[in-house]
Design goal:
The structure is a homotrimer.
Chain A (H helix, E strand, L loop, with lengths): L3 H10 L6 H16 L3 H7 L1 H22 L11 H16 L4 H6 L2 H29 L4 H13 L1 H12 L14 H17 L7 H22 L7 H11 L3 H14 L6 H23 L1
Chain lengths: 291, 291, 291
């Protein structure tokens, strides 16, 4: 039982996120905020608004899970230490003279280290969310998955929503329609840890945390080095979608009839869109098949 | 007391919604979702987003009432049975080969049956909402009306809101400004059941449930057969509005002065709008009077 | 201890808001709503929607603080007296023949009296919010500031949000980016009362309430008489921003390099915006200096 492997993973699963990993998370989040065009100007014109946005970037996942569980969304403001930590990082990044931080952050190794540590915090958030949701709903495994997902990747939802309220919404940055890589991998991890929590997965949690974190960090760093926004999930997704929705071909072939039948619902342009998408998805699959 | 009529209504008010009426409700909701242009394409491109939208269409009213009462909006995910039921209906409707379901649903009798059963669930939702709100606020009859209304017709609000977040918002589908027929009839029912609950209406609940449900089903089916989106409420609304806001004529006649006086607030175009609307409402009333 | 001054401030801090000051608050809020172009037309077409908007204008701050603390947003509907009071004021203002109320309200003394009394309620709301938040989080002083701020000035946030949902959103009326005067002064008061509550400010609460209210009323009335939307805060803000973000000059001078370096993020237009804003802020500061 207490093999060196178990000791290693146990020690790993007991590491505290507080000082260093949280700092890395805040650093990456606020840098991502500053990369947005116009963010620096907002920080001058109205520092309070910029600070608020930075807090949303840093604590968005927790806020979303609080909203979904009807807990006070302001709870994240209650642990003053993290707020002050994130605020000071926001202050340094935005108002450091000749923004040395951005210059230092522009070196690749720093980015790799920070991104890797941020991915570690993701695992902790997912596990915390799953456990927290289980304390509410004993066997509501769907809720556990949702809360783990929200804690791990909900920041983007909150941020998009805030941009929507601010009026600076970019509909192509929509998180619902095309899931980003973090959303996908967090959903996967949330499912895994939920099944582990409900004893459907006969793996000890610390081993699972270690392996999942290693997977997260490895994929993230490889993606950053090779600069591919795409994901190693494509084949799995393709097989899964073919397994679940495998009759898309004949479906879409029948679809044209029913589309045209029910085309009184929308303008021609809007109804022509789905057909086009359908046909090109079909085309893609055909090309995949012919390979 | 135990007349056959009472026995009938009691038995009716004790019918469980669970298997069949819920199925009808999910069927109608998801079919309404699929009728939207582009919904089928979204279901292919990102099934998760489509599933989420379908769940919002099926459980929107409950989610809204949870939000208004600060209960976890994810509670609807906790009763796994209904989720799996709705999910399977969503799956069948969207991914059935040569979508047989849509073809079968396109027959009018099926639509009538499903719509009628969905209207039955509306009554149960209103009564549940009123009772639930009463457990929070003993004599907050406004809250009871609001919660009953939200449970019965809040799905459209949630759906519009989700479309807003998704960027696919159609402002002419706005639910606030022009209330749809379900919103109106649900508000009426919520008021009725609230007054019955606060003993201001000397009718036994099961009789009221039976009569209101019959009224709902009858109006819905007649509207579907005669294909009139308009409502048998027009005369009542007209008398009510004339009773409450009867001095619109002289009001609007004075309005022009004050409008022009306070026209420094907005651009000429925006201030000219209300006057135009006012005058044509006045015109309508005049024509009504002359008839 | 019981000097006449203390007796005066104690008696002042014990005045009840209920009948008169609340009426003034509702009057000012609903009149502000009616001043919006198109509001009167909405009140005719759909009185319910107009009533809902009026309630949001009257109780927005409380609703926002309820949302932030995960309390039922419908709680404001539970105290029926205030609802009926605000509803009757809404009814009188919108449907009074030859809208006498607007005509009477157009006299300056009436406006001054109502606005002054509304400012008094602001102090009470801030104190109530701070005390209420302290009952949740013992030493979460950030939460106390936020809740006090939300109760005092959150109505605009709720109103903007409602306009956003309604589709009638004006992005130049954005409350996040450029804080209005009420938002600023309420934030100041919330900070003051929070520090007084956490014993960091050695002033008795009733004195503080009296002085802050006098400050509120005086500034508000002077602003209304001199019709200046700008604030007596400009010099303090300038010194504060120069103290905190004083290196904006050299920051912005370096900024151009890093901007151009990281200009692959956005289109040229969007990245040129911040530089322009930065430079003109720098220009403004230079002119200020040269004076």
């Amino acid at each position: 039982m207490d093999s060196p492997w178990d000791e290693l993973t146990l020690a790993f699963s007991r590491t505290s996120m507080f000082p260093f990993f949280d700092i890395a998370h805040y650093l990456v989040s606020v840098m991502a905020l500053k990369r947005q065009p116009g963010a620096a100007a907002v920080a001058w014109k109205n520092p309070l608004s910029s600070w608020f946005t930075a807090m949303l970037h840093c604590f968005g996942g927790g806020i979303l899970s609080c909203v979904l569980l009807a807990e006070p969304p302001l709870r994240f403001l209650a642990n003053t230490t993290n707020i002050l930590l994130a605020s000071s990082i926001w202050y340094i990044i935005f108002f450091c003279p000749c923004d040395l931080v951005s210059q230092g952050y522009s070196f690749l190794p720093v980015q790799l280290l920070a991104a890797g540590m941020k991915e570690v915090t993701r695992t902790w958030k997912i596990v915390g969310g799953v456990t927290h949701a289980n304390s509410y709903y004993k066997n509501g495994w769907i809720v556990m998955i949702a809360i783990g997902w929200a804690r791990g990747a909900g920041g983007t939802v909150i941020t998009n929503f805030e941009q929507l309220v601010k009026g600076g919404w970019k509909p192509e940055a929509d998180e619902w329609l095309k899931m980003s890589y973090p959303a996908k991998v967090t959903l996967l991890g949330s499912v895994i840890f939920t099944f582990q929590h409900t004893k459907h997965l006969a793996v000890s949690r610390h081993n699972l945390m270690f392996l999942y974190t290693m997977f997260l960090v490895a994929t993230k760093i490889t993606m950053m080095i090779t600069e591919t926004a795409n994901v190693p999930f494509a084949p799995f997704e393709d097989t899964l979608s073919r397994m679940l929705f495998g009759w898309q071909q004949q479906f879409s072939s029948c679809e044209k009839k029913s589309e045209t039948k029910s085309s009184f619902n929308g303008t021609g342009s809007s109804t022509s869109k789905p057909i086009a998408v359908a046909s090109d998805t079909v085309k893609k699959k055909h090309t995949k098949k012919t390979e």
